[in-house]
Write a structure and sequence with these properties.
- The structure is a single chain.
- By secondary structure, this protein is mainly α.
- The protein is about 75% helix and about 5% strand.
- The chain has helices at about 1-15, 30-50, 50-60, 105-155, 165-215, 220-290, 295-350, 355-365, and strands spanning about 70, 80-85, 90-95, 100-105.
- Strands 1-2 form a two-stranded antiparallel ribbon. A two-stranded antiparallel ribbon has the order 3-4.
- Helix 5 runs antiparallel to helix 6 (about 220-290), helix 5 (about 165-215) packs parallel to helix 7 (about 295-350) and helix 6 runs parallel beside helix 8 (about 355-365).
Length: about 375
């Protein structure tokens, strides 16, 4: 077996010239390598005498980077020897257990380094977000605790609260006014719904009288008069419905938008007042205690929070005062116009003055929708 491997190695090392004849290597490098290989094989096989040592010899044989590949050349004997160290390719390592060579690349370490770096960056970012959320929850919990404590103290009469008597009176008046206007809005909607049903009934009754006047020759004139009367009442009723709808829409905007917006600002003001009193009480309690280093640091922090909530409270109090003033002016202007419209329209309708009723709608720039505008056309009917 050793002779076969030596003969195979020697055959691989014999150069062939351009004419097909055997040639010689410069400085007999090939023969010298064959002699070294034979000596190492004889020494190791003789000492062990087993196949396992032969595999170790194969592993400990010449490195591929140190061998040379011999081929025929055109420029002389040295041109056919190509050192394998000049061939670029992936490095390999030999696995003696499975008798195979495994390629080894240098990209694994760089990819592992980049992936570990990116994972560390993502971990740091997520850690920063978690810290921010934890800090926010901590501040919110502390603020909620202080405000709850202040609210309970005020409820049981133990704590003091900041009161603006003039502003509190205006807020109470606004809440009472809103309740009354909501009642007016509810009744106006009920009137609109009932009157709409009456107009629809008058319209159907007029159509029935007109049909009977055509089918009853002996009562044609009587049915005709009543049909014309009902049609006239239906037309005036639709005009009045236009005025009532405009009145309801304006009251709804005043109550559910303008007043509600002011009340939302008032709620924010009351919450700011509660926070201001909570931090004021906290500062007063700390000021009464001992004045050591830790307490002084806490007093400074409490003083800073107190100033922040004081500025917020004063800003919202100013906003509430301004909104209450503008709301009162807007309410007077809107209700003056709407009450005048409602009075003139109702009076003209029940007086039977069709011209005055139409003139009232023109005065307030109210445009009526044509009759049957809400009904689908015959193309849309199923």
């Amino acid at each position: 077996m050793t002779d076969g491997m030596l003969s195979k190695t020697a055959t691989m090392e014999i150069p062939i010239n351009r004419n097909g004849d055997a040639g010689t290597l410069a400085e007999d490098d090939g023969l010298e390598q064959v002699a070294k290989l034979q000596w190492s094989l004889d020494e190791k096989v003789g000492s062990s005498g087993g196949t396992r040592d032969l595999q170790q010899v194969m592993v400990s044989g010449p490195n591929l980077n140190e061998t040379s590949i011999v081929s025929g050349g055109y420029g002389g004997t040295n041109e056919g020897i190509i050192p394998t160290s000049s061939i670029k390719g992936p490095a390999v390592r030999y696995n003696a257990q499975f008798n195979r060579r495994i390629p080894v690349t240098g990209q694994g370490s760089s990819m592992q380094h980049s992936s570990s770096g990116s994972s560390m960056t993502a971990e740091e970012a997520s850690r920063g977000v978690a810290v921010e959320k934890l800090d926010f929850v901590k501040k919110w919990s502390l603020n909620t605790y202080k405000c709850t404590k202040q609210m309970i103290s005020e409820r049981f009469g133990r704590g003091s609260r900041t009161v603006d008597l003039e502003l509190e009176a205006q807020i109470d008046v606004l809440r009472d006014t809103k309740k009354k206007y909501e009642n007016v809005l509810r009744l106006a909607r009920a009137l609109n719904n009932h009157f709409y049903s009456m107009v629809q009934t008058q319209h159907a009754l007029g159509d029935t009288f007109a049909d009977l006047s055509q089918k009853s020759p002996e009562l044609r004139d009587e049915f005709g008069y009543n049909a014309e009367t009902q049609k006239l009442l239906c037309k005036n009723g639709e005009t009045l419905l236009g005025a009532v709808n405009f009145f309801v829409s304006s009251i709804n905007t005043l109550v559910n938008k303008t007043m509600e917006d002011t009340l939302m600002t008032i709620k924010m003001y009351e919450a700011a007042r509660l926070e201001f009193d909570a931090y004021r009480t906290d500062l007063e309690e700390l000021s009464v205690g001992p004045r050591d280093a830790v307490t002084m640091a806490r007093i400074d922090a409490a003083q800073e929070q107190y100033q922040i909530h004081k500025d917020k409270y004063e800003r919202l109090r100013s906003d509430v005062t301004i909104k209450l003033k503008f709301l009162d002016e807007n309410k007077v202007k809107v209700m003056h116009k709407q009450l005048l419209l409602f009075h003139n329209a109702i009076s003209a309708y029940f007086a039977g003055n069709q011209q005055q009723l139409e003139q009232t709608l023109k005065q307030f720039n109210i445009k009526l929708r044509p009759t049957g505008a809400d009904k689908p056309s015959w193309l849309e009917e199923p």
